[in-house]
Amino acid sequence: MKAILQVRFKTETQNQKTVAEKAELENQIARLEKERQTIEDLADARVQEYQASLSQSQARMKQEAEKRKRLEEELKRVRLEKEEAAHQQAKVATLQEQMRQEARRERPWKRN
Hints:
There is one protein chain. Helix content is 94%, strand content 0%. It is mostly helical. The chain starts with a helix and ends in a 6-residue tail after the last helix. The model has no long low-confidence stretch (mean pLDDT 92).
């Protein structure tokens, strides 16, 4: 009888220990699950931040490209205007020279 009680006591003690270990493991699993969820949420937030930053960077790059294109077009226009002004100035200088030569031919006695 004593042996049966000892076996029963040992079995109950083992069962209590097993139940306590099971509860501890369940608590640990719950904590780990919460930690995993927290890490996952933080990772999702970081991904969203990076995507927003990337989107902003892409928008800035697009704006810079458009600005550069406008400036290149403006530079081309200014160069053409400068070239046209140089042609006009050359024409004016040629006409002035022609007028001086005609004036010398008409009045050969008066030399400039």
